[in-house]
Design a protein that fits this description.
With about 190 residues, this protein is mostly helical. Helices cover about 65% and strands about 0% of the residues.
């Protein structure tokens, strides 16, 4: 999953949400120099990524999307899942979507000083532009795919992902629901 999924599976622990997002920035296994909550967030981020990458229905979906989205099918699935989580938010959370996001944006992490400047800049931009607020709309999915595509170091068809989403929406939605049932049991119970 992309940003929203990682926030959601942090179980409304705002300090863990920031640490979980930071997990995408940390490479390798040498991260024990951080405070325990940040280490917990990095580990959670990796567990979520591994879970989605190895979940049977997601693996099957990747194979089905690969022809249209070579090399980027797994990335597209992460973005599709965030879009669907946002779109169907009320099925997964009692907290209204915008309220959930505003609480995240306005939280001041106690461990802020431990994060590197590039991560802090990323968070500040997210707070200002509120990208995640647009995830429920198809426009939000289009912008999300364009933004991630522009940051890839190789040519890709990720910009075509919204079109593929429309063509395969029933299959993608079914797979997402299967994944969410399993992931909710794994991470929130």
């Amino acid at each position: 999953m992309n940003l929203l999924g990682h926030l959601y599976f942090s179980a409304n622990d705002h300090e863990l949400m920031y640490a979980n997002l930071f997990g995408d920035s940390v490479k390798g296994s040498q991260y024990n120099q951080f405070p325990p909550k940040i280490v917990e967030g990095i580990a959670l981020h990796r567990r979520i990524d591994h879970f989605i990458d190895s979940h049977e229905s997601t693996v099957s979906l990747k194979r089905q999307l690969y022809e249209r989205l070579p090399k980027v099918a797994p990335i597209a699935i992460d973005l599709f899942y965030d879009h669907l989580l946002a779109k169907e938010w009320n099925l997964y959370s009692k907290i209204p979507y915008t309220e959930f996001l505003e609480k995240f944006y306005s939280y001041s992490p106690a461990l802020w000083a431990y994060y590197p400047e590039d991560f802090k800049t990323f968070i500040q931009r997210m707070r200002i532009h509120k990208w995640i607020n647009h995830y429920p709309s198809f426009y939000g999915l289009e912008r999300l795919c364009e933004g991630v595509s522009s940051r890839l170091s190789f040519e890709s068809r990720l910009k075509n992902a919204p079109e593929v989403f429309l063509e395969k929406e029933l299959l993608i939605t079914k797979t997402f629901k299967e994944f969410m049932t399993a992931a909710t049991n794994e991470f929130l119970h």
